[in-house]
Amino acid sequence: MDKRYNALPLADQLALRQQAIDDVLAHPEWTLAQAVRHLKKTMRLTTAEMAQLSGVAYRTVQDIEQERSEGTVQTMNRLLGMLGLKLGVVRRAGDDGA
């Protein structure tokens, strides 16, 4: 956890994780960069911690956060996979496929 915060009990850490998941799922309009920044902030992680937990290079996480890169599908699945999420493709409501 980010050293700027006091350590939280496990129950509180799990509550933050669930809140982060709920927030991302509730905002499909967010860009991937916005989602990554929100996850990191809500879960009280540093960029280095997020990179280590997800297995993604520090610089890659930093580039995605700062919108210098959109990241690959594989990279985003690693970042989202920390929370049991997976990047997917869905048909938008009202699209008839034409």
UniProtKB/TrEMBL annotation:
Organism the protein comes from: Aquincola tertiaricarbonis
Domain HTH cro/C1-type: 36-90
SUPFAM superfamilies the UniProt entry points to: lambda repressor-like DNA-binding domains (SSF47413)
Name recorded for this polypeptide: Transcriptional regulator
PROSITE patterns in UniProt: HTH_CROC1 (PS50943)
